[in-house]
Design brief:
The protein has 186 residues and is an all-alpha fold. Helices cover 72% and strands 0% of the residues. 31% of the residues are buried.
Length: 186
Amino acid sequence: MKIRDRLLLAAERQFAERGALETTLTQIRDAAGASVGALYHHFPDKADLYREVWAYALTDYQRHFWRAVGDSTDAREGITAGVREHLRWVAENQYRAKVLTAARPPGVRESESNREFMTNVTRWWRTHAGYGAVRDLSLDLVYALWLGPAQEYTRQWLGGDMRIAPRDVADELAEAAWQSLGVSNH
């Protein structure tokens, strides 16, 4: 594994376990087995390293989420698959998920991959709303109703406050999202 990748993985774990403020570059460097020069060659400062770790985690999450939703055959399958994929991804990527529950660094929202993801999800939603399968709501409200309960559950689970694994509540949360957003339910 390349030194840059080792640094990113070490930083991901350190940021997840200690938080961005408490993590030091020395801890990251030591965990990666990297020299001071190697660290600064790839990342000029901790803020840049944190932004890279956060952006990578977001891109990874979005890729998996979009694959589940974009491959769906209808609106119900897409909504429920999105919730299930969210829960699966968090359970299998706990360090990345913890990073994403922390403060978003500047510049990530404006990234090309985030714009592409939002365009795809918006197009998917508007298509299904256009033929009456889902409620025609603003994307901000869609996001809250679609993933809000699953995100809160996983945030609590990652913090150790929920004992039941996310996959074990996936069907219930997926159905709740469909009940909130599907037109036939209102």
